[in-house]
Amino acid sequence: MKTYTHILFDLDHTLWDFEKNSEETLYTLFDTYELGAFGKFDSTSFYKKYKFVNTLLWDQYNKGKINQQELREQRFVKTLTGLGLEAHQVPKGLSEAYTDLCPTKTAVFPYTHEVLAYLQPKYGLHIITNGFKEVQAIKMSSSNLHGYFKEIVTSECCGYKKPDKRMFEHALERINVKPEECLMIGDNLECDIDGAREAGIDQVFFNPEKSRAKLRPRPTYEIHCLSQLQEIL
After folding, report:
1. 192 within 8 A of 198, measured Cβ to Cβ
2. Any stretches that span the bilayer, and where are they (predicted)?
3. I need a labelling partner for 6 at 20 to 30 A (CA). Which of 35, 61, 120, 169 fits?
4. How far, in Å, CA of 4 to CA of 7, rounded?
């Protein structure tokens, strides 16, 4: 078995429970902005439509097809016009309110703190994320994650996005470590797993939903719960 010295973690959907925190935020905004008064959709439909639209836009962002501002400007407009509103009916400030509120939510995946506390004395722990620098910092502070990690590498700070191997190479340079000494842990097969592989880094595919996605080629490891990292490391 390889001897790793440094662990790279994705943040959203891997440690910080994006879906749970986003859902809570969206239900709050539905009430705050009285979106039900339009009479065209309920809070559940609003949440599901946003989740669908946001996933598509993040895929476009990760592939360099849209920028950060376009992502933020389009997600609620596309969501609400898709639910039957006119563009001029989309409440002003809704996107900003989401950006302000969601990162303050504190839900993390089960065993996150226990596993990080177990790993921290043994390895250098780092974050590598396509998320926006300021937003990710708030998330980590709100959920008490910041104290575990040495380097926080964002796509904004290095100019590349996962799965571009240059983002991983930038992280390795900042940490001053060789690829074979690192292990990448993330939920996204393309961004986290394929990207790390291209950079010569072993990977752990975090698959809590136990999806049967075709693994091409297979990641070094696959786990369904973060506690399983203690069996690997």
Report:
1. no
2. none
3. 61
4. 8
Which DSSP symbol is given to 194? I
Asked if 227 and 115 count as a contact pair (C-beta separation under 8 A), the reply is yes
> Two tokens at 109?
């995946």
Q: Which residues contact 129 (CB under 8 A, 6 or more apart)?
A: 10, 11, 12, 136, 152, 153, 154, 155
The beta-strand segments (E) located in the chain are 6-9, 124-129, 151-154, 182-186, 202-206, 221-223
d(CA 178, CA 5): 10
**Which of 10, 15, 16 is CA-nearest to residue 152?**
10
107 exposed, middle or buried (CB, 10 Å; 0-12, 13-18, 19+)? Answer: middle
- The tokens of 6 are what? 């440094």
Q: Report CA-CA distances (Å) from 19 to 48, 80, 130, 173, 215.
A: 11, 19, 16, 32, 23
Reduced to 3 states (helix: H, G, I; strand: E, B; else coil), residue 147 is helix
pLDDT at 1: 59
State residue 197 phi and psi, 5-degree precision: -60, -45
pLDDT digits (tens, 9 = 90+) for 170-210: 999 999 999 999 999 999 999 999 999 999 999 999 999 98
Q: Whole-model pTM?
A: 0.92
**Element (H or E) spanning 1, and its range?**
none
Q: Which CATH class is domain 18-104?
A: mainly alpha
Q: Is it true that domain 6-17+108-232 has CATH number 3.30.470.20?
A: no
Token output for 36: 């039900």
Angle between helices 43-62 and 68-82 (to 10 degrees): 150
Q: In the structure encoding, which two tokens stand for residue 54, read together? A: 């946001």
